[in-house]
Structure formats: structure tokens, C-alpha cells
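Quick question, first post here. What does this chain look like in 3D?
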Amino acid sequence: MSFTPSRKTVEWREYAEANDLVAGRWLARAHTHGMTPWELHALYLRQDGRCYLCDDPLHPDLAAADVDHDHACCPASRSCGRCVRGIACSDCNRLIGFGHDNPARIRRAADNLEAAMRRLANDKLREAAVTGEEARRLIAAASEALRG
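> Answer (accepted):
Ran it through. C-alpha cells below.
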């Protein structure tokens, strides 16, 4: 007994081949998220092939990209298709996942990260100023010793 793919699967594979897409990856991602591969590809094209969160380019084969969906609607790794928010790069998808899909929490974390980075930059500037001041003192001492 041989397996015969459906007409839609055959059509998708032909479309994918004509558009240089890895047919199986798109088919699997679409199926997992309650979409047809054409709907998923249309979403990719509406996003101009970019992550909907950070705007970085996505790989055209969806490598290192995830279909992000509202976990309040569909808590598992699969979704109904109606709660799909967009295609995100894997880094952004993990970021919002670890942030519990809570924009306020993610915003607070970003604000605190920026504050810590400013504090470190200021500490380094103060350290450089002390080092520069110390260097000037040593130069002055050396100059005086040479004169003496």
C-alpha cells in the first residue's frame, strides 16, 4: 500500500518549490498553528519577512523562527490559528515567553537593563577619570624629579 499525498499538499509543494521554500517545514508549522501553509506564507509576506517584534529579517525557510500565539487562548505549543500574533525570531519568541507574555514585565526588565548599563558606563567613566588623574599626578611627579 502506497501513500498518496492530498491534492492540497501537492499544490503546496509545487508552490513552495516555485518560491524556493522548504515545503515540509512550512506545512508542519502551519498545521501546528491551525493555518494553511498559504495563510502562513501570506503572514510572512505581510511582515515583509521580518520578525513582528524586533523587525530583524527572518530566514525564508522559517529556520530560527516561531509562530507566536496567545497562550491564554491555546496554552500548548499548538494553536487554533485565530490567536496567532505573528511570526517572531526565536530570540524574541523566547523573550516574550520568559516574560510570561506580559508587556509591562518585559518593559520593566528593559528599563532596568538600560539603567544598569548606564550605571556601569558611568562607573567606567569615573574609573577612567581616577586613572587619568593618577596618571597626571605621576607625570607631574616625574617631571619634578627630572628638574630636581
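The longest helix spans residues 103-147.
The chain has five helices and two strands.
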